[in-house]
Amino acid sequence: GQNIDQPTEMTATEGAIVQINCTYQTSGFNGLFWYQQHAGEAPTFLSYNVLDGLEEKGRFSSFLSRSKGYSYLLLKELQMKDSASYLCAVFKAAGNKLTFGGGTRVLVKP
Amino acid sequence: KAGVTQTPRYLIKTRGQQVTLSCSPISGHRSVSWYQQTPGQGLQFLFEYFSETQRNKGNFPGRFSGRQFSNSRSEMNVSTLELGDSALYLCASSPGQGTETQYFGPGTRLLVL
Q: How far from each other are the two terminal CA atoms of chain A, in whole angstroms?
């Protein structure tokens, strides 16, 4: 089966840093995606990790530890527009399938 | 390149009716996946099509079905609608050859009364 856990909600201040953790236990794993979803909109791609380690993309970084079944998304220099839900998803290449966690709602306050 | 498009964007139906939703993938993408998103269950995988063949299916009843055409456009159908089918239905496209990013369309918001 698949079990993907992430916190339901986090609050942070503009300009600060927030780390969203994602733990997973899955029967197959080829990589882990992070998506951002603003209310009422479609998810948009943020990052994809296949190998262990940190991938940095501007203000956003994502980390993966396959042995620990753990990933995190780091958002730096938070802006008001970063208020959104952040979804981690485990990818299985067989069947091209994404299994999503419940999402973490991040609220950025001034 | 144009993004993933879905039609219609909003739909209101009554219980017992059936509905067909359409998804046009990014040009050149041959894989289309469908997801249901509800506040209670989050984003759940429905099925995936590649080159007109269903390659994978999630845990949804047989009332949910889909197909893909030779131009990679896909449709999903829900028959005998139930109140619990009210959701945002998202499709995502990818090239379909391996480990690639799936790009989501804007979704169809279905309300069942």
A: 41
Cβ atoms of residues A31 and A49 within 8 Å = yes
For residue range A18-66, list pLDDT tens digits in order.
999 999 998 888 899 999 999 988 999 999 999 999 999 899 999 999 9
The per-residue pLDDT for range B22-60, each reduced to its tens digit, is 999 999 999 999 999 998 888 999 999 999 999 989 999
The size of chain B, in residues, is: 113
Q: Which residue has the tokens 């994602």?
A: A22
How many whole angstroms separate alpha carbon A78 and alpha carbon B74? 38
A52: DSSP letter = S
As a whole number of angstroms, the distance between CA A105 and CA A53 comes to: 24
Q: Strand order in A3-5's β-sheet?
A: A3-5, A18-25, A70-75, A60-65, A53-57
CB contact under 8 A, A43 and B43: yes
Considering only the beta carbons, identify the residue of A43, A50, A97 that sits closest to B48.
A97
